[in-house]
Amino acid sequence: MGNQKLYKGSLQTIILKLLEEKDKMYGYEITQKVKELTKGELNITEGALYPALHKLEAEGLLDVEVAKVDNRLRKYYKLTENGTKETASKLAEMEEFLRTMQSIVNPKFSLE
Amino acid sequence: MKLTPNQIQELYKFTRQHYVEHYDVQTELVDHLANDIEQIWQEQPKLSFEQARTISFKKFGVFGFMEVVEARTKALSKKYWKLVWGIFKQFFNIPHILITITIFLALYVSFQIFPAKWLIVSIGIGSMLVIGTRLFLLNKEKKTRFKESNKKWLFEEYVFNLGGSIGFINLFIQTANLSPLTISNIAIVVTSIILTSLFLLIYIITFILPSKIEEILENQYPEYKMV
Known about the structure:
heterodimer, A: alpha+beta, Arc Repressor Mutant, subunit A, three-stranded antiparallel β-sheet, B: 227 residues, mainly alpha, 0% strand, elongated
């Protein structure tokens, strides 16, 4: 397992990116999807996921839908119009961040 | 293997035992635990429901559901004040602005007639009485609603507790006592503006929002009408 601290600041961007690709998702599905995509490298904890989702919802970036599935109610999250715009800018920020880190950590790489 | 309706009810009970009072927060946690328990069963089918539940709950860490509840409360507080702000702004549009101007003028004229300190203190006491009475009545209504539905919603709690703003309003009322006996004309205008805003705020949180509770909950919770 990698250093979870390094991922912490990117949690919102990860959630937004996943929701951009899939119309709507529920909390547990997001944790599983991230595990699957990162082959278990990144494990989003429950105590971090829901606070992040609730914050995005309060900021108006996510909307919720509830459906009855398997004897229980399931809360789905999806991007609002503002959320879609914010996703694009967060992803751009993330790419910029990765490029900057790359030039610090591996300066040779950028010279090649 | 899927969880039975009884086991789902058990999970609701479990969240209540771990200090999650509100149905909306419980529901999300119940679905999460249920998904995780079903996943655990796929890997270890021999585990009992309770054993799988314990494994799943441990993943929430030492604070259990507390972090989730706290974050939810914080997020809803933001939504609450957004709602208040939205209504507040309406009082500066036509025709509501007439009410706002009337309150302002009434205050302005009163300050010309009565000593400032007396007026501010009386307004403070009056506001306190109104808020206190409303809080008492709303608390009663909240209990009746809970008895009828057997469900508490976090946002409902927020609206009926007046968004936890009592402390802030109390602070104003206490500082009222410090105001000077008479004040200059500019100070009268400023004080009248502040008091007008305060009146509107008190009116919004103690009367308007609680009276719209059904509409607010339906908007906030897609599941509100489903259960």
